[in-house]
Design goal:
Layout: H1 2-20, E1 23-29, H2 48-55, E2 58-64, H3 70-79, H4 113-119, E3 123-129, E4 153-157, H5 174-200, H6 208-236, E5 239-241, E6 244-248, H7 255-269, E7 275-280, H8 301-323, E8 330-336, H9 368-371, E9 372-378, E10 387-389, E11 393-394, H10 398-405, H11 422-425, E12 436-441, E13 444-450, E14 459-466, E15 489-499, H12 518-534, H13 545-548, E16 567-568, H14 569-577
Parallel strand pairs: 1-7, 1-8, 2-10, 2-11, 3-4, 3-7
Antiparallel strand pairs: 2-9, 4-5, 5-6, 6-16, 8-9, 12-13, 13-14, 14-15
Length: 578
């Protein structure tokens, strides 16, 4: 009898331990709009697996990215902190890393949820896009690499997917080339023409050497542009497995299938121990790509094809969890790093950006369309199925939620801006723990969101807004993304105030006439902003010009033959496995 009682106690303890220490599968899309998944209202884009997640769990309808850009948003997601606290918020136009040989990145002093879980005995993996830096001082120090931030295994892109990575898809550097190349070439042409006319008129005898030097300078500028565009792909678009380059340049051939298969394999080999898998999709960021099984099959062109292929991948992960009977002990989270990129329209007029539903704006700005993203969490038996929550939540909340469930204490030497989601998800609390949320446009505090206690109102005050171009558009089409300072924005004195609970489309700013408490509300929000800014400490700017420029000594290459950098270990591995 005693043995039986002890055995029952042991089994109960084991069950309790399993419940308190779940596995974690965190699925992060890239540039997916809140209006894209079927469970958020899309009637024509097929996302049955994302919808299945929502049906079996909780759907957050006011889930917010901490930044409307990839790099800072992902830094906030990983650390539970506003990106300005880690120096991952740019003070210039360029708000993300573009080169693999940049020296900036997520500082080693930052603590990710992967570090916390690894210390708790979890197996940890990141598969897909990283975009938080690689090296600091030389090409083998890997100071910003996923393996230096708590992940046992990494397979994916150290930087990001760009149009320049796929031949024939154009370049993201069009504006830069126009400014840095077209203008100098035009000046040289004007100088040549002027000197030629003056020489013909006999007003200014000009030596032939001057003409030669100007033509040579033009040729050098053109040559540099051609070299940049030619070498950008192999030098920046490559796959790594841990610290080794496995495919340079990367091939899009069955890329989603390869990464999904690797994610499934990680789950299989980690099934006996608690694990953390971050599957960070390249979809649906441009360049768009999909395999032959999905190409041309959707009702939304190339964008729809990629979205539906990503949904297939989500389904594969769910199937593996079911197959291994891990679903009931696995917390799954699905989201996007920011809203859809509405300015992604090709020169042929094809829309390569997604839908932000009813919401204004998109990627790179803090209108709701740029920061309100899908947020789905499922944990059968622990989180109620089919629940919809309209309270303000943040992608920073995943950090404390995951840490607490894994049994890890939160770091006490720093401010954690995220809040544990479990009380809200389990119905123990009816309100978000965020009374205030702060929306940054890179380094600059752009807006404040206030959900007062004992009130249904959700106030949002903008200190400045981007100037959409052309006038009347829903984005900054002339610059491809919106910028955060200078002539690209309009300052508001007093701040532009909305009640998001009544005006989610942000169409009708409030005034003293329409809102009697107008001044009182703005004063409370300004005081909150002042209290928040006092908590910020000066840290090195990881996205400064010196940190984002290409540094030859940091350039990784899988071959020693100059800058050709050609290898395909992935293809060899596939050949061996088949």
């Amino acid at each position: 009898m005693r043995i039986l009682v002890l055995l029952l106690l042991f089994l109960c303890e084991t069950q309790s331990c399993a419940t308190s220490r779940p596995n974690f599968v965190l699925l992060m899309a890239d540039d997916l709009g809140i209006g894209d998944p079927g469970c958020y209202g899309n009637k024509t884009l097929r996302t049955p697996n994302i919808d299945r997640l929502a049906e079996g769990g909780v759907k957050l309808t006011q889930h917010l990215a901490a930044s409307p850009l990839c790099t800072p948003s992902r830094a906030a997601f990983m650390t539970g902190r506003y990106p300005i606290r880690s120096g991952m918020a740019s003070q210039s136009k360029v708000g993300v890393f573009l080169f693999s040989a940049s020296s900036g990145g997520l500082p080693t002093s930052e603590i990710t949820f992967a570090k916390l879980l690894k210390n708790q005995g979890y197996s940890t993996a990141l598969i897909g896009k990283w975009h938080l830096g690689t090296n600091c001082h030389n090409k083998t120090d890997f100071c910003h690499h996923p393996l230096s931030h708590g992940f046992d295994y990494f397979h994916g892109l150290p930087v990001t997917n760009l149009r320049d990575c796929k031949p024939g898809e154009g370049t993201v550097f069009t504006t830069g080339i126009r400014v840095l190349v077209s203008v100098p070439l035009q000046l040289i042409a004007i100088a040549l023409l002027t000197l030629a006319v003056l020489k013909c008129l006999g007003l200014l005898p000009t030596p032939g050497l001057v003409f030669f030097c100007l033509l040579f300078l033009a040729a050098v500028i053109l040559g540099l542009v051609v070299c940049f565009l030619y070498y950008f792909r192999p030098l920046n678009c490559f796959l790594m497995r841990n610290h080794e380059i496995t495919q340079q340049p990367l091939s899009y051939d069955h890329l989603t299938q390869r990464l999904t298969e690797d994610a499934a394999e990680f789950i299989r080999r980690s099934a006996e121990t608690p694990f953390l898998l971050v599957l960070s999709y390249l979809h649906v960021h441009t360049a768009l790509f999909s395999s032959k099984d999905f190409a041309g099959k959707s009702k939304h062109g190339a964008y729809g094809d990629t979205a539906e292929e990503m949904d297939w991948s989500v389904g594969q992960i769910l199937n593996v969890l079911d197959e291994l009977r891990l679903a009931n002990n696995t917390l799954i989270y699905f989201s996007s790093d920011q809203g859809a990129h509405v300015e992604e329209v090709t020169t042929r007029g094809e829309v390569h950006g997604g839908s932000n539903g009813i919401y204004k704006g998109g990627k790179a700005n803090n209108w709701e369309g740029g920061i309100r993203v899908p947020g789905i969490l499922r944990w059968p038996g622990v989180i109620p199925a089919g629940l919809e929550i309209d309270e303000p939540t943040s992608n920073m909340d995943i950090f404390p939620t995951v840490a607490k469930l894994a049994g890890s204490p939160l770091p006490e030497d720093r401010i954690i801006d995220g809040r544990d989601l479990m009380p809200l998800l389990q119905g123990k609390s009816q309100r978000s723990d965020h009374e205030f949320l702060f929306h940054y446009c890179n380094f600059y505090l752009n807006a404040v969101r206030w959900h007062p206690r004992n009130s249904t109102s959700i106030w949002k005050a903008f200190f400045f807004t981007p100037k959409f171009t052309p006038e009347g558009a829903n984005g900054c089409f002339s610059t491809h993304v919106c910028f955060c300072h200078g002539d690209y924005i309009t300052h508001h004195h007093p701040p532009l105030l909305f009640d998001i609970s009544k005006d989610p489309r942000e169409r009708n700013p409030l005034t003293l006439t329409t809102e009697p408490r107008f001044q009182e509300i703005l004063e409370a929000m300004q005081q909150a902003a002042d209290r928040h800014t006092k908590t910020l400490q000066e840290v090195p700017n990881q996205l400064s010009l010196g940190n984002i420029v290409w540094k030859p000594w940091l350039q990784m290459c899988c071959s020693s033959s100059g800058l050709s950098c050609q290898c395909d270990q992935e293809k060899q591995d596939r050949t061996v496995s088949h």
